[in-house]
Amino acid sequence: MSAATDSPETDVATAVAAAAELLGSARDVTLLAHVQPDADALGSALALGTVLARRGAQVRVSFGSPAGAPESLRPLDALGLLVPPDEVPAAPDLLVMCDTAAVERLGSLADRLAAARASLLIDHHASNPGFGDVQVLDPSAEATAVLVHRVLTAMGAAIDATVGACLYAGLVTDTSGFRRAGPAAHRMAAQLLEAGVDVEAVLRPISDDHPFSWLGALADVLHDARLDPDAAGGLGLVSAVVPVALMERFRVEEVDGVVDLLRTASEADVAVVAKQVGPRRWSLSMRSRTVDVAAAAVALGGGGHPRAAGVTLDGEPAEVLDRLKAVLGR
Ligand code: AMP
Ligand code: MN
Ligand code: MN
């Protein structure tokens, strides 16, 4: 393992160069974010899509579900590149998958991978097994947006305020407001500000703007939060359940924010929000201070990062949380 060519960093650099070449000659590009897209997934896809569309390529950006993009992320789509999943070609020419930890995270669009003429993965999840012809996969990157920034730089693309806003949105949200951002990510942010990104304008719709009814919905979820000090090997678990009737009182992107409030409970290392996504189906969002929640998620069939992970499980909420506690206690 002494040769520098074996290092993961060199592998990523090689993949970034290959991605830049693939995108540089592309005429028709389909960019996909993961289902229930967040700012990193959609911002990454839209940043690349915007550059490619300006260069004259035929470009579309999409994701498997839900039907429309989260309201708070729509301002990132300056060129109107977003299309519903049924407008994604059955056999895309070049398929680019952004922030997708597993093929299943493409949801109803997962079949496009095998059908594509060529495919490119850009992701930063340690649990990602790797898929696609070219794989820019780097778990040390704080956000997929960091890797997209590297690819765009390798392409010699001009990153202006429009493209920069998409990248900044992914970077700031995936690092929880730069709490988990290294020096290079801060330098990237500085470059984006120099390119004209208006941080206040990017963040207002994403984190600082909610309908008044959100306050009451949030109060109801937090009111019923539970603390289990013995869970997670005695490190403590704080949990909240969001049944479908409560889900309907939130916008999709707002339910995802609940776990970031729960995780502030001092008594718990792990925070989990169980969101109802079907009659007996729950999507679990986990955050932790020290526990490896990605390992717990993977053990249950999901994935993510050591401090932020997710999995979808079937059953009653109490059973589903018990299954999580069982793997957290190991
Ligand atoms: P979330 O709580 O939904 O923000 O997810 C936390 C992290 O886990 C994100 O990086 C997600 O991409 C990842 N994640 C969530 N659900 C899954 C899943 N079912 N499979 C793989 N990764 C997931
Ligand atoms: Mn994501
Ligand atoms: Mn991400």
TrEMBL record:
GO MF term set: 3'(2'),5'-bisphosphate nucleotidase activity
Name the UniProt key words of this record, in alphabetical order: Hydrolase
Signal sequence residues:
none
Enzyme class of the recorded protein, top EC level = hydrolase
Q: Cross-referenced Pfam families, in alphabetical order? A: DHH, DHHA1
Residues in DHHA1 domain copies: 248-327
- Domain of life per record: Bacteria
Which positions fall inside the DDH domain? 29-170
The EC number(s) attached to this protein equal 3.1.3.7
In terms of InterPro entries, this protein maps to: DDH_dom, DHH_sf, DHHA1_dom, Oligoribo/pAp-PDE_c-di-AMP_PDE
Among SUPFAM superfamilies, the record links this protein to: DHH phosphoesterases
Q: Which PANTHER family match?
A: BIFUNCTIONAL OLIGORIBONUCLEASE AND PAP PHOSPHATASE NRNA (PTHR47618:SF1)
Q: What is this protein called?
A: Bifunctional oligoribonuclease/PAP phosphatase NrnA
Q: Which organism is it from?
A: Pseudonocardia benzenivorans
**Upper lineage:** Bacteria, Bacillati, Actinomycetota, Actinomycetes, Pseudonocardiales
